[in-house]
Specification:
Largest sheet: 6 strands, antiparallel
Number of helices: 13
Structural class: alpha/beta
Strand content: 15-25%
Order of helices and strands: HHHHHHHEEEHEEHEEHEHEEHEHE
Helix content: 40-55%
Shape: elongated
Number of strands: 12
Radius of gyration: 25 Å
Length: 437
């Protein structure tokens, strides 16, 4: 199986995309300078700067739905987790700029006419606040998402109106057409992502072919493509978004745990935890669900020159590594792999027997080390946690010559990434998969 359609976005394309984004968010403010000259806003300096910041903020907000629309080009170039992180950072930046713009415009205007600015700033602040703290607010993911969508649309509309009023008289027609285009692009991206895309996927539902218990709280789901449709192609290690209840339920990301060489079907390995996955054991053979895939750049095939790999997994974070190891086996890959796998107890080890079989095979050349946080009386392996000392003990040769792949709880990954870089491993050879998109 060839993967020439994936991972083809090099640094040049990344730079071009970032440059294009910079041009788009600064174009309205640049035209504001061009058309307003040294004056504008009746000579009120604070109001002028407020208008200028508003014309930077609005394009950023209009492009937020584009960043979150899961566009294949952006995913192939940067990885969806990176795009979503950038999306969050731009949301925070836009919120800050809008607050400053609201202050400038409010203090320079009569109180009776200045209320729209703090109202729009308050809406955007609510978007940012709930995006980062919805778990602390004890909101379910789906409840937060519905609230987020409403707040985003209200904020975008409010700032659009303010931006239209802020354009200078000299370039009013051109700039209002441009701002309307931004508003239309953002609205179209939102509608496609939240309405049109889901409706299309509901017409091509995948079928649950098999449900198997992997451990006491982990299940394997085998999913078959719709009748007459080909299963999507994917890289080992990529992930998908699944929407159960015939495509009308909650949507969540899950790694594809099977090899791309498995014909006609693919698998998702899901742990019972949280609001949604707690009921995963109730899924039955024949159930229908919507699938959006594939996403992510967490795959060894994107780096064919690397032959010595260290996989570090924590808990259910083993799933992308199983996809990669299965693919290596199927392709008889010439690869040396060390897997360090952290679990709470021995019964929590996912794919324990299959990992033993893979380690006993000829390809890949695999060594597996299990590390238990709470070992039982009969456990003779490693215990505690995976740290720099254990890595140095288990990795043969120069750490700096290896490629490290990490997937597990965020605190574990953050600590290990910091440790590896401190030990001299180049940052571009330390890769991680983050589930919290």
């Amino acid at each position: 199986m060839k993967f020439f359609s994936f991972g083809s976005r090099g640094p040049v394309v990344q730079i071009l995309l970032l440059f294009s984004y910079g041009v788009l968010i600064t174009l309205p403010s640049s035209l504001f300078f061009l058309f307003s000259g040294d004056g504008g806003t009746d000579g009120n300096v604070l109001a002028r700067y407020g208008d200028l910041l508003l014309l930077v903020t609005f394009p950023m907000l209009a492009l937020q739905p584009v960043l979150s629309a899961r566009l294949g080009m952006l995913d192939r170039s940067f990885g969806l987790d990176t795009v979503y992180l950038f999306h969050k950072l731009m949301g925070m930046t836009a919120g800050t700029l809008l607050l400053v713009a609201a202050v400038f415009r409010t203090v320079s205007s009569p109180l009776a006419s200045s209320w729209p600015d703090p109202a729009a700033a308050g809406l955007l602040s609510a978007v940012v606040f709930t995006a980062f703290l919805y778990r602390q607010l004890r909101m379910s993911y789906e409840a937060w998402r519905r609230l987020h969508n409403v707040l985003v649309l209200l904020t975008l509309a409010a700032v659009f109106v303010l931006a239209l009023l802020a354009v200078p008289a000299a370039g009013k027609t051109l700039m209002r057409i441009m701002l309307t285009f931004y508003f239309g692009a953002g609205s179209a991206a939102y509608l496609h992502h939240r309405v049109i895309g889901p409706l299309k996927r509901r017409r091509l539902l995948y079928r649950v072919d098999c449900v198997e218990r992997e451990t006491h709280n982990v299940w394997n789901l085998t999913l078959r493509a719709p009748e007459g449709a080909a299963r999507f192609d994917f890289l080992p290690g990529q992930f998908q978004f699944l929407t159960f209840d015939q495509g009308a339920g909650e949507e969540h990301p899950f790694t594809i745990s099977s090899s791309p060489t498995l014909p006609g079907v693919h698998t998702a390995t899901i742990k019972e935890s949280g609001d949604f996955t707690r009921g995963i054991g109730k899924v039955r053979e024949g159930d229908l669900l919507a699938v959006q895939a594939p996403f992510g750049r967490f795959s060894y095939v994107l780096h064919p020159d690397e032959k010595e790999l260290v996989f570090i997994a924590g808990g259910i974070g083993i799933t992308p590594f199983m996809s990669m190891l299965r693919h290596m086996r199927d392709q008889a890959a010439d690869q040396d792999v060390l897997l360090l796998y952290a679990s709470m107890t021995e019964k929590d080890i996912v794919f324990k027997n299959e990992l033993q079989e893979l380690a006993a095979g000829a390809a890949p050349r695999l060594r597996v080390t299990h590390v238990l946080a709470r070992p039982g009386a009969g456990w003779t392996g490693k215990s505690g946690r995976i740290d720099g000392s254990l890595i140095e003990q288990m990795v043969t040769g120069d750490l700096r010559a290896k490629a490290f792949y990490l997937c597990g709880p965020p605190p574990m990954m953050h600590a290990l990434i910091t440790t590896l870089i401190e030990k001299g491993v180049p940052s571009h050879r330390v890769r991680s998969e983050r589930f919290a998109l």
